[in-house]
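Annotated sample (chain length 161).
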Amino acid sequence: MNIRAVRVEDLAGMQDCNLHNLPENYTMKYYLYHALSWPSLSYVAEDHNGRIVGYILAKMEEVDEQEGQPASNHVPHGHVTSISVMRSYRRLGLAKKLMLQSQEAMSSIYRAAFVSLHVRKSNRAALSLYRDTLGFTVKNIEEKYYADGEDAYAMQLTFEH
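Output written by the structure step:
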């Protein structure tokens, strides 16, 4: 297994991984936007044949995305847009490695104060990874966050600089 920064030629493999595993799907333009805007924050896991078997899609939050906050109050922070690992490659620690790579880049390159993400309330495996393994805390419950009406936990991990 190899974890490395995303390249433009990886985007189709990332999208394939997403379509196989997650109900929230994105256009190729959205993957490209992340890869070009924040190239150091998104990573892929590839098997020994170079096939993409997992990815993390992440970004830095823009000033205008911090609702109700004047630009002077902007706190730089990262956000995990999407993370997925193919079923046959789960329980190998790939999601944890992908998260840690992205978090390190957010903290060291962008001086992010924290990272945020959303997770389905029903996704016990992901919740365990974020809360128990990585140390995230639940900041809020966002009702009907997902298109199918499921609630999301809004989670956050503060970085220590």
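Annotation: The chain is about 30% helix and 30% strand.
Annotation: The helical segments are 11-21, 28-37, 94-110, 124-133.
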